Amino acid sequence: MKVFKTFAFLFTLLVVNSCATVAPPKAVGPVPTAPQLEWQEMEFYGFIHFSINTFTDVEWGYGDKSPELFNPTELDTRQWARIAKEAGMKGLILTNKHHDGFTLWPSKYTEYSVKNSPWKDGKGDVVKELAEACREYGLKMGIYLSPWDRNHADYGKPEYIDYFRNQLTELLTNYGDIFEVWFDGANGGDGYYGGANEVRTVDKEKYYDWDTTDQLIRKLQPNAIIWSDNGPDARWVGNEHGYAYETTWSPLLRDSIYGGMPDYSTKYAMGQENGTHWVPAEADVSIRPNWYYHKSEDDKVKTLKELLDIYYRSVGQNSTLLLNLPVDRRGLVHENDEKQLKKLTTQLKQDFAHNLALHAKTSANTYRGNSKKYHSDNTVDGNKNTYWTTDDGTTQGSVTIDFGKPTQFNRFLVQEYIPLGQRVKKFILEAEVDGTWETIDQQTTIGYKRILRLKDVEATKIRLTIADSKAAPLISNIEVYNAPLIVDTPKISRDKQGKVTLEVPEKGLAVYYTTNGEEPSTASSLYSGPIVIDQPTTLKTFTVDPETKRQSEVLTETFDLSKRLWKVSSATNEPLTEQAIDDNPFTNWSASKETLNTSKIDLGETVTLKGFTYTPTQGRWISGVITHYSFYGSTDGEQWTKLSEGEFSNIIANPIQQKVLLDSPSAVRYIKLVPTTIMNNADKAIIAEIGVITK
Known about the structure:
The protein is of the alpha+beta class. Helix content is 17%, strand content 33%. Residues 1-19 have low confidence and may be disordered.
């Protein structure tokens, strides 16, 4: 008996020691560096677009405007930093030099700079002031430097690269630690170029010699993340909507990509399962329709629902979020922008107020080496450095969380332990409802963080099943929440016949509205179905939660003439469509330059025209976008007058509705929009909508 007890003791000791020394999984594929991990954990940070463009009311300056135009009256970088900090942002990236070449610091290599502006008598330095404000508020500082310079005489020549690196050196040595260096993919085109006023193209793949520039950054700021289409440290998400993809890999086929390549968005933006380098996604988007401040957009700041969608589809889909704040001509973040940021912050705090899974009872169908070190409890312990995993060769497994009683939830957050690589290819979420397991969602990648927004579910248990993985799955964190109802403004749409629909963001809300210019209240008209608006009208509306009495802000929408009388005709044999005049931006008219040159839109009546609008395709993958145009008007459809011509600046990267005001009003019955240049020099243009401005 004594011999048996001794043997049993030794066996137990052997098992315990064996479990304690179970080897961790080996890394799979590329893995993040320490700076990349730190950057990923920032999750949410801000962009600041502010320059001479702010004062010329354009998106892409030509590079020919006088520095004397730059003169903010109340510039306060501490206000920018305070607002960012209160919004939960972890850093700010400033557009130190945009495509127009104007520098926000007194660069010694150019005269096109704040040093030749009246602001602070030419003694000011916006970059320095922001760096100091970031330090004061505990924010990290990043820099944006446009590789393209529409002002510089040497752009396109080898000499310009020395100039570019000299300015980069100034920014990396004079302003403290930099967490991210941001290089735009827009390179080459028409510009001032020191008075040459010409188009200059460059070999985007070879001209900049990025390897040498990256080495310079590594030397001066070794911990900085270098951002561009192909990194090398972080990449563009491929759109300016702020959305990552339901399948988003952090690994990237980096050596196949160069900045500004035409097919980047369709082939590489989502990352690749077999990617060779760790280059995670960053989603950039502006809080307004455009990147720079325009007074006309003061009522176009994104709604709470739009900002929430951006957050969940960026941070919640394995990306960081870079949200732009366009500083106004005073030098301040506008009150409307600050208001929406506060609403977003408040809602996110409510959404993630109480983690229902923290320290809950868990179990798993398999553990690595049966070791407690890799137990399912690691997924709910609040420690990012612990994880549940399986044996090598096992690419499936499940973790069950037991709430102990029926519990309502509508948010599910899961994270992989990415220091050892991104692995999960498919996962399933189930809930035990009244003793029966039901599938409530199934998705593909997880990565650093994945957040699912679900319909309200009341369950006693939930089960995460990894259905497919590149290797043994590593799940470091699971969180479950029950987010409150979103009380937000309704979505407004109008069809060709002038019928206006008000769609609430969530069921159960009441909608009130006015059409006479007065502020609406609960005594105003209660929306019950479509209303007809076919003349220039201002609609004001808001929503109310009848139970809690919480109200949204008032949303104002200005309508011009409806398109019920409009018709399209053409002298060519190419098939025509009225999808460009159906008041639905998600339908398109595709037509050749020849057809558009001979096509005319009959408004059905003579109107006094003050301007027009053009909306490019709103599909996921844009094409056929008109970048340069001529716009004509006529009273009889035969004799035409050119009313406007020009460029829709930045429209390819930011394909939103373009509004053009005429120099003077004109009486017309017929109009036509003729493209002079289409993106990628295509022959066919795609038009989502053409509209008129008469009010």
